[in-house]
Amino acid sequence: MPPPADIVKVAIEWPGAYPKLMEIDQKKPLSAIIKEVCDGWSLANHEYFALQHADSSNFYITEKNRNEIKNGTILRLTTSPAQNAQQLHERIQSSSMDAKLEALKDLASLSRDVTFAQEFINLDGISLLTQMVESGTERYQKLQKIMKPCFGDMLSFTLTAFVELMDHGIVSWDTFSVAFIKKIASFVNKSAIDISILQRSLAILESMVLNSHDLYQKVAQEITIGQLIPHLQGTDQEIQTYTIAVINALFLKAPDERRQVDVESNVDILDCPLTEMANILAQKQLRYIILTHVIRAQRAINNEMAHQLYVLQVLTFNLLEDRMMTKMDPQDQAQRDIIFELRRIAFDAELEPSNSSGSMEKRKSMYTRDYKKLGFINHVNPAMDFTQTPPGMLALDNMLYFAKHHQDAYIRIVLENSSREDKHECPFGRSSIELTKMLCEILKVGELPSETCNDFHPMFFTHDRSFEEFFCICIQLLNKTWKEMRATSEDFNKVMQVVKEQVMRALTTKPSSLDQFKSKLQNLSYTEILKIRQSERMNQEDFQSRPILELKEKIQPEILELIKQQRLNRLVEGTCFRKLNARRRQDKFWYCRLSPNHKVLHYGDLEESPQGEVPHDSLQDKLPVADIKAVVTGKDCPHMKEKGALKQNKEVLELAFSILYDSNCQLNFIAPDKHEYCIWTDGLNALLGKDMLSDLTRNDLDTLLSMEIKLRLLDLENIQIPDAPPPIPKEPSNYDFVYDCN
C-alpha cells in the first residue's frame, strides 16, 4: 500500500550529530515539525531554528515552499532567518577586519534566499550596506595599502550582497542617494579595479537605470563613453557583456529627444553623456571597438553577450522609427528639395529656363517626365508617394543616401530603367519605398528587443551607416532580380517576394561583413531561387490521389510513434534552462531531464552552464510523471500571470510552459528557443498520453511521411498511379488453364 500523499520521508542534518531519518506530515504546521526536530536533539527555543535545503542553494523551508519537499530530500536544521539576519547585521559592523570579511561573505551567500533577504531588509540592512559602500573607501584608505586584497574582497562581498538583496524586488531603487550612485560610478571609472567589484558595479548601474527614471538621469550624468571604452577593450567577456548591458539600459531609457541627435556631429564622444545615444552609436570609435574587441575577438561569443549585441542592434535600428513613421509634408520646401536633388543627380539638369509663363509650363512638363523616369507613382507631385507610414521619410532618406554615396550605381539604375519600355522598367521610386518598408519589417524596426533572442548580425557593426548601406545593396539586388525575371509592372509584388527571400536566405548565413552579404546575394540569383523552390516543393510534395492518401493513413501511426520516441529520448538527454530575473542576468541555470524509464523528472540548480549531459544523481529534485496533472503554455502559465515587463514580452510568452502537479504546485519553464519549447511540450504531452500538437511535430510528420511514401513508391517510378482501382476483368470462358496440385 503506497504511503499517504501528505507524508514525505526526509533526512535532517545537525552539525555534530548523526542525521535523522523522519517522516514529515505536510498537514502539520511547520513550527510543530521544527519543534519535533529540536526536541529530538534536546534543543531549546525551537522558535530560533528553521529548516533549509542541504544542497548548494541553502534555501529556507517556509509555509509557501514546503510543498517542494520530496521524498529523499536532505534538509538541515539551522538558525532561523530572523536570528541569522540579526547576527549578520551585528557581525558586519564588527571592528575586526577578519570578522567583518567573514560576515560579508556569509551575507553574500545567504542573500540569494528571499526569506532571509526579507528579514535582513527589515533590519534596514540595505541602508547599512549603502553606508558601508559610501564611507568604506575613506574609512579604510590607510588599511587599503597594507591590506588591499582584504579590502577588495570586503567590497566585492558587500556589492554582491547588495545585488542579491535588490534582485528580490522588495526595496524600491528610487531610495538611493546621489552619493551612493557617485561611489558606484567611481568604481566603474577607475582604470584599475578588482574584476568582481567592477562586474557588480556595472550590474548595479544597469539595474538603477532600468528600474528608476530618476536614477537613470543621475547615472547618465556620472558615466561617459570614455570611461566605459577601456572595459570593452579588455579581454574579460563577462565585463564586456555588463558594459554593453549598461549602454543598452541607458539607451533604452533615454527620452526620445535625447536619442535623436545629429549622427554626423563632431562631438568628442569620449566626453559625451551616454544619453546622446544616437551620436555615440553612430561614431566610428565605439562601433569599431565593439567590432574589434568583442565580435572579432579570438574567442566564441557566449549567449549573454550575443543577446546584448542583439539588443544593441535592435535599439540602434529603432532610432529609424521616428523617420519611418514621419509622413512627408508636400508643402515643406526643405523636404521637396530632397526630391529635386534626386532628380538633379540623376539627370544633371542644366540651368533652369527664365521664369516666363511659357517656360513654366515647359519646366513642369520636364519635371513630370523626369519624375516618371525616377519611378515615382505620382509624377506630378512625388511628395505624395511618401505620405504612407511606414516607411515615411525613411525611404526618401535612403534614396538620397544611395544617390550621394553610390552615385554611379544610382545613375545607372535610373538611366537603365528610363530607357526600357514602360511596362518593363523597374520603378526606382516605388521600389525604394517598398524595399525600405520590407527591410524595416525584416529588422523589426520599432519593436522592443526580445528577452530571449540572441540573433545579432555582425555585418551591421561594420559600418557607421549600416542600414543605409544595407538598403543600397538590396536596391541593386532588386534591380538585378527584376531584369533576371524579365518582370513587368504587373509582376512588382512577385519581384518583391523573391527579393525578400533572397535577403532572408543571405541573412541566415550570418555574413561577417556587408561585402560578404553582397557576395551571398550574388550566389542567390533568381535562377538559384527557382531551383531551391523546386527542390523544396519536391521534398514537400503532397500526393493527393486516393491510394496515396490511404497509404498515408496506414503509415502515419508508426511515424507518430517514431516522433514520440525521439521527443522522449530528447527529454531523457535533458536541457539546461536559464533563470531570468528583472535585470535579465542569465548567470543562473537549472537542468531538467527525464529518467530512462520515463517515470521521473529530475531537476536541479547548476552553478554554470553544463558541458554535455548532467547525471541524474547530481540533480537533487524529483517529480514523478504520475503526479503531473497538466501542462500549460503561454499566458496560462502561473509565472506569466505575474506583473512585470519581462512577463509581458511576447517572445517570452511563446517560450513559456509549466507543469502543474499536486495541489497548487508547478514547475515553470522558459525554453531557450522555439525548438526546445516544441521538444519539451511534445514530450510532456506524450508522457500524459495526449496528442503532440506543436509546429515542429507537424513539420516532422510531413517530412517523414513524404520520405516514407517516396521510398515505398521507388519501384513505381515513371508509372502513373490511377485515382481509382482498375476494373475487375470478366470471367474467362473456361478454366482449362487451372492446374490442380492434387
Automatic annotation (TrEMBL):
One Pfam family it belongs to: ELMO_CED12
Domain annotation ELMO: ranges: 334-507
Going by the UniProt record, its keywords in alphabetical order are: Apoptosis, Phagocytosis, SH3-binding
Has UniProt tagged this entry with the keyword Transferase? no
The protein's job, in short, is: Involved in cytoskeletal rearrangements required for phagocytosis of apoptotic cells and cell motility. Acts in association with DOCK1 and CRK. Was initially proposed to be required in complex with DOCK1 to activate Rac Rho small GTPases. May enhance the guanine nucleotide exchange factor (GEF) activity of DOCK1.
Name the record gives this protein: Engulfment and cell motility protein 1 isoform X1
| Organism annotation | Mesocricetus auratus (Golden hamster)
